[in-house]
Amino acid sequence: MASDRQRLAILISGRGSNMAALLYAAQADDCPYRPVLVTGNKPRAAGLDLAEAEGVPVRRLDGRSATFWDDLDAALREAGADFVALAGFMRIIPEDFLARWAGRIANIHPSLLPRYKGTGVHEAVLAAGDTVTGASVHLVTPELDSGEILGQVEVAVLPGDTPERLADRVLIAEHQLYPRVLSAHLARFTDPAWIEAQVAARALALPETSARTSHGAPAWHVGAKSSGKLFAILSVRHHGEEAIGLLVKGAGPEEAADLVAHRPELYFRPAYYAPAGWIGVRVDRPETDWDHVAEWLRRSWRACAPAATLKRAG
Length: 314
Ligand code: GRF
Prior knowledge:
The chain is of the alpha+beta class. It has helices spanning 17-25, 46-53, 68-78, 95-100, 121-128, 163-187, 192-203, 253-262, 290-304, 307-313, and strands spanning 6-12, 33-40, 83-86, 105-109, 132-139, 149-156, 209-214, 217-222, 229-236, 244-249, 267-268, 278-282.
């Protein structure tokens, strides 16, 4: 499955033990991601030497540079990163950078979020007398340590624990948690059942639609059984294509050719279906914009709906 693996960039500031856990987990045959870059804000971070020794491309950027965030963005794009994992990356990410990578950055934090955000976590856990702590993997949003929680692990607090001893045990748990949770999160983007559910929810929200199949592929139909038409088909590499794509109807062959020429990462010419006016939109990447997919479904629905349906829908 090597070619369909999500391309993962990892950002670090220090020793990079979570980065190492992510790298070694990626050696498993069924790992859904492939590390394509390790970088961060500290050009001498120890973790960068380790990544280099393991044969992963490294960029030694300097967080003090005025162009740091642009350099980082460029490095991620040059590496073709689909998704970014923060692993002890000690910089607050500016909002405009986050907006460019919305939904595509995860972080690991050494507490059971939403408890104990920020730093000084283990001291706070001990001061509160908690008997259980843990670690969380979450999506990164502008508010610190507050994005959607993707997974957690619990770690018992022992009598006589110091912040250091507790941190050491939580770190062991982090190393188990991060690859597992990230893998589950990234695998769903190429999981045909998950993708079909995303499309179905949006297609069936349109008036007078129903689920069908087209030559065995999941498809959605508008209008009465006799007079209606298919307006969307999900092609799960049906003809050996590299991508899972949603086939929709556009304005015609010129628009289709134009889209494929200008945005080849998003659009493709579907085998067999293209001559009948179908355009392929890739839906198997973490950056899939599901609002954009919904717009295509609406457009295609409009192009295919019988006149009476259009009239009733207003
Ligand atoms: C970990 O405790 C992680 O939870 C936090 O920073 C630390 C990084 O350690 N975000 P390492 O560099 O992965 O060893």
